[in-house]
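Table 4 source record.
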Amino acid sequence: MSRSRNGQGAWLFATNFLKHPNMLGSVIPSSRYLVHEMLAVIDWERGRYFVEYGPGVGTVTRELLDRMHPEAKLLVIELNRDFAAYLKRKVRDPRLIVYEGSAGDIETVLEELGWEGFDYGLSGIPFSTLPAHVRDDILQKTRNCLRDDGEFIVFQFSNKVFPHLKTAFDTVDKGFVLRNIPPAHCYRCRAEIASEPMPMERRAAGG
């Protein structure tokens, strides 16, 4: 990743934080330690359909594309018009689909794409600042869209969403990444009870 691209993305992220602090939660994009924690649990050979809510300037998006199978697809859903336009300009990959809209549109978008759900969903949208009915709607629709053995991986700067994740999903494992500004809670959510230990369970500090 070029230094100029890093600079453009960081500046766009910071200026949008000043305009919409409740939508972002942090003035800078996620650290590489947080990104590593989120992606470490993914089975790259199995995953073919990926979804990311709130990709921002593509910090996680680019890492996903770097690791995904050549035949995999990634749908990113971004409510912020500036970020959506930036991703369309700067991240050129035929596997990437950028949708400008709400994560609550997930079922409609997947139907339009002809996807029968997704294998992995990732999200950094601040659920704790969303109206309760919006938060619960997104979580329920996300569960509905998970394929067999699908997982929803979430990071948050507050632990407030944890009980709501437990309501929506059968299994929720927690982790915590100190090496991020601010430190972040990580959650790995499944619609069915898993039979194996979860890596995030064993790596509470991250890095």
